[in-house]
Amino acid sequence: MALACTAAVLSPTTAQPAAAISTPPPDTRISVTVDGRVRTARVHVPVPTPDLAKMPLVLAFHGRLGDGNDQEKITHFNSVADANGFLAVYPDGYQRSWTDAFVRALLKRLVTSYSVDRRQVFAIGMSNGGFFAQRLGCVMAGQFAAIATVASVMPRALARSCRPADPLPVLMVMGTDDPLVPYSGGDFGAGKVLSARATAKLWRSLANCHRPTNRMLRDRDPRDGTTVSLLTANRCAGDASVKLYTVHGGGHTWPGGRQYLPRAAIGRTSRDFDASKAIWLFLHDKRREARPTA
Question: What is the fold of 27-283?
Answer without folding.
Answer: Rossmann fold (3.40.50)
